[in-house]
Amino acid sequence: MVIQTKVKVKEWGNSLGLIIPSDIVNKENIVANEEITITISKKDSLEDFFGKAKIKKSAQELKDESRKGWE
């Protein structure tokens, strides 16, 4: 069975920890020290995407380049 829920990552000493909501713990009968498997999917943000694209040209230079070949 696959269960999806959103959780926040919290600092836990020198590590990071996730808190599993109690309704899921109860539904799946999860107990302390039990080994479970989780799948992690990080939400991408536009800020992350545009922060990775380093553009060193001005908007005018980009516009001029895009017009080449259209004249």
Shape descriptor reads elongated
Class based on secondary structure composition and strand pairing: alpha+beta
How far is the first residue's CA from the last residue's CA? 59 Å
Order of helices and strands, N to C?
A: EEHHH
What is shown here, in short?
The chain is α+β, with helices and mostly antiparallel strands and 71 residues long. The protein contains three helices and two strands, in the order E-E-H-H-H.
Structural summary, described in words:
By secondary structure, the chain is of the alpha+beta class. It has one domain (9-67). The protein has 3 helices and 2 strands; from the N terminus they run ββααα. The protein has a two-stranded antiparallel ribbon. The longest helix has 9 residues, at 59-67. The model has no long low-confidence stretch (mean pLDDT 83).
Which features would summarize this protein structure in a list?
71 residues, alpha+beta, two-stranded antiparallel ribbon, 3 helices, 2 strands
Topology:
Elements: E1 9-12, E2 15-18, H1 22-28, H2 46-52, H3 59-67
Antiparallel strand pairs: 1-2
